[in-house]
Each structure stands twice: as C-alpha cells, then as structure tokens.
Design a protein that fits this description.
By secondary structure, the chain is α/β, with parallel strands linked by helices. It has a six-stranded parallel sheet with strand order 3-2-1-4-5-6, with helices on both faces. Keywords: Hydrolase. It is an enzyme of class 3 (hydrolase).
Length: 186
C-alpha cells in the first residue's frame, strides 16, 4: 500500500505577498492541509532558506541572486516564515532547500525514505518553479505523484494552465484539492 505525504512548498510570507492570494489560493491550500490532517497523512513543509550572507548562492545564479543582494530567506528575514494561514503544527516536518527543487540542497529524500513515503502530493508557489522542479526530480526518483492544480499558484496563469493540463499529467495525476480530498479516508 502506498504511503503518501502532502508537500506544502515555498508558501512563505514574502512569496505569498509577491504572488498574492490568487483567487482564494490560501483557502484552498488550508482545505488540502485540513484534509491531510483528517486522513492522518504526513505534512512536509518545504521552505527556501539560506545562511546569513548567503554563502550558498553563486553570483552566477540568476534565480537566487536577488535574494542574496536583499538579504532575503535567512532566519532573520520576517518574510521567511511559513504563511500563518497554513503554518505547520508540532509533528509536521519542515525541510529547508537551497535551490528551486525541494530536493536540492535539502534532506527531503532522506526524510521521505525514512518515513517509507513513496507517493507525494504536491502544492506550492510557483507552479513553474518549485512544483515543476520537484515533480521532475521526484519522478526520476520513482515516487508516485499527484499535483493539486488549484493548490499551486503561478504568476503567469497560462504557464500554470499548460503545466497542469499538458506537462504534469505525463508524470503525475493532476486533481483539484476537492477531488483529492474526496478520495481520502475520513
């Protein structure tokens, strides 16, 4: 039998502020988190984070160069906090990553393997960032995958649509939060 976990990725205050609430995004994500808790599924929160001074970021890194210049995503940065609408509870796992994929520079794979988790349910900001990169790497690692399309958010709605309707279905089941929640035991 598959052991699943819900991944809530990059839902940090500064990222949510930059992307906005996307037509009730946080309410849908709260629904997914609540459904996972009710079904006793593990929740794994993935955050991007760096040491003071950002020694992990090369000057050649276009994605994270601005974070290094601004001092973002360190323990001292108040925007680094997971958004309180979906904040972890005691017992939830928080994994810190150093790149776009939830696996890059983190101990995520170790945590999943130790927990005998073989199926991932992906949510997060942005669809074209952490969700895409994590999905690709998780597929290569032979995890079963589900993407909650309305549990993901992207700055470009057309990119989100193409990924969730055309690209992701090649490697994952793509469901709405409500569809996924209806499949869980209560």
């Amino acid at each position: 039998m598959a052991h699943s976990a819900l991944l809530v990725m990059d839902v940090q205050r500064s990222i949510v502020d930059r992307f906005g609430n996307g037509g009730g995004y946080l309410a849908r994500l709260r629904e997914a988190v609540g459904a996972a808790r009710a079904a006793d599924l593990p929740l794994v929160y993935v955050v991007v984070g760096f040491r003071p001074g950002h020694p992990e970021i090369s000057a050649r890194n276009k994605t994270f160069g601005a974070a290094a210049r601004s001092g973002a995503f360190t323990a001292e940065d108040p925007g680094n906090e997971i958004h309180p609408d979906v904040a972890p509870r005691p017992g939830d796992i928080v994994v810190t990553k150093r790149r776009v994929s939830a696996f890059a520079g983190s101990d995520l794979e170790m945590v999943l393997r130790a927990g005998e988790i073989d199926t991932l349910v992906l949510t997060g900001i942005a669809t074209s960032g952490v969700v895409l990169s994590t999905l690709r790497q998780a597929a290569d690692l032979d995890f079963g995958l589900t993407v909650l399309a309305d549990g993901c958010l992207d700055a470009d709605p057309e990119v989100h649509r193409v990924l969730t309707e055309k690209v992701f279905p090649r490697q994952a089941d793509v469901l709405s939060v409500a569809e996924w929640a209806s499949t869980l035991p209560v």
